Amino acid sequence: MKLIDTDILVLGGGPAALVTVSTALQNYPDKKITLIKEDEISLVPCGIPYIFGKTLAQSSKNIMPFSPAVAEKTTIITDTATSVDIESKTLYANSHKITFDKLVFATGSTPFVHKSFEDALHLKNVFTIQKCKEKIDQLKDYLEDKQKVIIIGTGFIGVEMATELRSIGKDVTIVGGRHILAGSFDVDMAIEAEKIMQEMGIELVLGQYASRIVQSGSLAEGIELCDGGRIDGDVIILATGYQPNTQLAKNAGLKLAHYGGIWVDEYMRTKNKDIFAVGDCCGRRDFITRDPSKVMLASTSASEARVAGSSLYGLQYLKGFNGTIAIFSTMIGNRAFASAGVTEDRAKKENIDYTVGYFQGLNRHPGTIPDASKQSVKLIAIRSSGQIIGGQVIGDKEAGEVINIIGLAIETELSAHHLVSLQVATQPLLTAAPTTYPIIKAAEQIIQARFQ
Amino acid sequence: MKLIDTDILVLGGGPAALVTVSTALQNYPDKKITLIKEDEISLVPCGIPYIFGKTLAQSSKNIMPFSPAVAEKTTIITDTATSVDIESKTLYANSHKITFDKLVFATGSTPFVHKSFEDALHLKNVFTIQKCKEKIDQLKDYLEDKQKVIIIGTGFIGVEMATELRSIGKDVTIVGGRHILAGSFDVDMAIEAEKIMQEMGIELVLGQYASRIVQSGSLAEGIELCDGGRIDGDVIILATGYQPNTQLAKNAGLKLAHYGGIWVDEYMRTKNKDIFAVGDCCGRRDFITRDPSKVMLASTSASEARVAGSSLYGLQYLKGFNGTIAIFSTMIGNRAFASAGVTEDRAKKENIDYTVGYFQGLNRHPGTIPDASKQSVKLIAIRSSGQIIGGQVIGDKEAGEVINIIGLAIETELSAHHLVSLQVATQPLLTAAPTTYPIIKAAEQIIQARFQ
Prior knowledge:
- 2 copies of one chain form a homodimer.
- Chain A is of the alpha/beta class.
- Chain A has 3 domains: about 1-110 and about 245-310, FAD/NAD(P)-binding domain (3-Layer(bba) Sandwich), CATH 3.50.50.60; about 115-240, FAD/NAD(P)-binding domain, CATH 3.50.50.60; about 335-450, 2-Layer Sandwich (Enolase-like, domain 1), CATH 3.30.390.30.
- Chain A is about 25% helix and about 30% strand.
- The first copy, chain A, has helices at about 15-25, 70-75, 115-120, 135-145, 155-165, 185-200, 245-250, 300-310, 345-350, 400-410, 415-420, 440-450; strands at about 1-5, 10, 35, 75-80, 80-85, 90-95, 95-100, 100-105, 110, 125-130, 150, 170-175, 205, 210-215, 220-225, 230, 235-240, 240-245, 275, 285, 290-295, 330, 335-340, 355-360, 375-380, 390-395.
- In chain A, the strands form 7 sheets. Chain A has a 5-stranded parallel beta sheet with strand order 4-3-2-8-19. A 5-stranded parallel beta sheet of chain A has the order 10-17-11-12-13, covered by helices on one side. In chain A, strands 22-23-26-25-24 form a 5-stranded antiparallel beta sheet.
- In chain A, helix 1 (about 15-25) packs parallel to helix 8 (about 300-310).
- Chains A, B: This is Pyridine nucleotide-disulfide oxidoreductase.
């Protein structure tokens, strides 16, 4: 048992932990910082699907690097934490006892599996997507000589796994809700993504759910659908979401929020001002309703980690924006799909009096520029004020940054009136035309809609 | 002489005119709108350099389209306006007399030529870049069998002309200030662009100016430099900026601003509330100092046109942001260069107490993603408050939208503290990593710099 005393102790190995450490290093250069993580090697979480296709092709190409500053100035321990005693400010691990002044939980999340599938988890060909190199390598090895893959779950991970596995010639069936990516895209946008997946030859089984995994000895043979239908497969991947990894925090007596995340205030502090939690293990709030949010994103985690890492010894600035805006992007085929804030569907559910602006233009100008392609922007705004509360973008790769313009507009509580006179850089080879910049044109529609 | 009576008359054929018309159509669907323009066909102004290389290769691929709504609901006249009588609200053209209720000048700009070169303009092989299809075709035809091109001026048009002409094998020499794109990029960023141009085989003659064009009969033989050196060439292109085209407005008695633009208030109104001016022909103000600004950009023009087009019969909203932030982007080789707000150099000149944040990362994550390349972000902020007043980006094509995030941060008066907890969408195939998103990392540096 090795004894260590540290000022700041960060527990975890993902982006939240890493960013907490690097932010703390910047803000408290004189403090002793220790990171304890379970695995020697951390994977880039959102890169995991790309290990399975041609994009990265191997897990060793998806390693999260430690910056030289972090590696040099931080004590990094690979060990499994077993308990935390908040009273004595001590963390116990298999072979370490660490006393700390400030503790940050960044223990991440583990796959969520429906009760009805739990029994099937021991089968050789049923997998979840765990953020652990060893487990990912096991799945990749197993897939090597298998042809028929069933993916249960149509969130980002399920969809990205489907497209990557299809790209290396697997027969892929994906099973899930009425439309894919339902939390982030309205039906009008989702069907464009579904069309591309179908063109790629992916079998979409939508508006269904898998009621049972059919076993035969130590293997799954396939799944049974709620309508009684059956799909056979060589491998079944459960991509049905993640849940906060909070056992340690719970055992330590920390308060949990809804959905099992560690309760934190807007500055990522638990009820104890010396204990913080960041990333997927903490309880998140929605930016519109402040209700608990299930959103799990590395970028949200990084944002939380920057707040925590600079607030450990007292708040240094007030956060400009509260809650999680759920800002995502992904690529399906050669099109990027991105979303921020609330969808139209969600606005309806929350009983928001909203209006929509939609514009489809091109991402270059004039349209004769060789790589020009369509760019669609949908904006959702509060009807009375025109305040932007959501947006969705489909386009080429630039859509990944266009959504960040919309995200910033949401965070800064801009209205459509602000957006219509926005000064944007436009350039033939790089962007839409100044005359038809899609965000601005969609904002115009929101203003017009108010008069109708 | 044809007599026409209209409610709204827009004078011009560029993006400012077009957007004024389409915005007015949306806001005042019951008004009669007339557009009078000099040329039958309008070119996309920022697409002009790409006519000369392989990208567009012909002017017919660079035509600015009129939307069906505009074409259908607007009276479009091709004629040359000769005078405006503000008293009687009448515009006279060669073969039209048009009475109006509201008039919008969108007469654009014409090439600015230094006094010392004016005499050379009549030479067969000396050209300016005019926003007129006929003139562009003339230059393109002339260049056909010529090899040595000298470009005077290192602004965006000069640089874009240089790279496009080089891409089709011309020997190109570009002559100008100490560094290219000096108004928009600091030296540290500009030298990266210069390196690429040199690698392309473009001859850069910097820190010099052309003192004289050397004539021989009806042709120019080359130029003489201020240090006495001489460069020979087959064609000389003057890319030394543009000046507002305001003769008509001046003759009508409208007040002019500095640099000759038509004086307008923040709502694009001249001193006469029925007469507006938008685009390059109007006087602009800098967003930092409110001093006159020489910036001429189609995107700025479009923004002004949206303000004017919705304010013709009374202001409908207060502008959220005053002044021109000079937000540009371009491509040099396969790298995008983008800039918004003030450069470090300008901040010094304005005696602003500023700090700088700079981060170079990658535009994908992990760095093993096949098309990953460097992305550099430089932010300039007021030291005391951390308020962002400028930014520069070098990257792949996504940089064209990254600068618009920075532009929005400037327009909404965000500080570096806001930016560090920004929620951004990050995705392996589309963006930088959540842990090292360059805008956020540069903002962190600004905060750190304040403590030093």
